[in-house]
Write a structure and sequence with these properties.
Layout: H1 2-10, E1 15-16, E2 20-21, H2 65-73, H3 83-101, H4 105-116, E3 120-125, E4 132-137, H5 140-159, H6 166-179, H7 185-199
Antiparallel strand pairs: 1-2, 3-4
């Protein structure tokens, strides 16, 4: 028993890519706390746990948030299934964020997701040809999903036919979104979605 306790004390804390700690990462939006898995309990060394998060509804809320970003990158036919490549892209992007901001890049990512998810959207209501849009509130889970989608979409669009690598574009997008800057693709889209919803209240 004594031996067990000493080995436990030597066990080091789990850091992302063995560099960035999950300890001081905090989600300041109460609504999203249950849906952004950035606590030390969901810490991983590499965002490549081959778990089957899609088997049950809402299970993917427990997936480490960095891994969800990795998965969101693997779209557009030619990139499907290339998870190791996506992990490398995200690793480089986090390195760039750390060098430029001198902050924990996981915290910057969480802040970007909080800012980039639209809080209000409009849906189609109506039958028999008459369709009108009705403003609705967006659930916290969908806000996280939408934010990840918009951030990766912005990075993908920015790096296409451009000298910049996808990692640099992803790093820029995440930084701008975390500041709430309107140069970010995801923030622009979110503002647009919320503006349309406001008009359809």
């Amino acid at each position: 028993n004594c031996l067990c306790s000493t080995t436990m004390s030597y066990a080091e804390e789990v850091k992302l890519f063995n560099k960035w700690s999950y300890d001081e990462v905090d989600c300041n939006d109460i609504a999203l706390q249950d849906y952004i898995a950035c606590k030390p309990s969901s810490a991983v060394y590499v965002p490549h746990t081959a778990q089957r998060f899609q088997k049950k509804r809402f299970k993917k809320a427990q997936a480490p948030i960095v891994e969800r970003l990795v998965v969101a990158l693997m779209f557009h036919g030619r990139n499907t299934g290339k998870k190791v490549m996506a992990v490398r892209i995200v690793k480089h992007a986090l390195e760039i964020i750390h060098l430029q901001t001198d902050q924990n890049p996981i915290q910057v990512l969480v802040q970007a997701i909080v800012n980039a998810g639209p809080r209000e959207d409009s849906t189609r209501v109506g039958s028999a040809g008459i369709v009108r849009r009705q403003a609705v509130d967006v659930s916290p889970f969908r806000r996280v999903n939408e934010a990840l989608h918009l951030i990766t979409q912005g990075a993908r669009t920015a790096s296409f036919r451009n000298g910049k690598t996808i990692s640099e574009c992803l790093a820029d997008e995440i930084q701008n979104a975390s500041k709430g800057s309107s140069t970010s693709f995801s923030i622009k889209k979110t503002d647009e979605i919320e503006r349309v919803a406001k008009a359809n209240r």
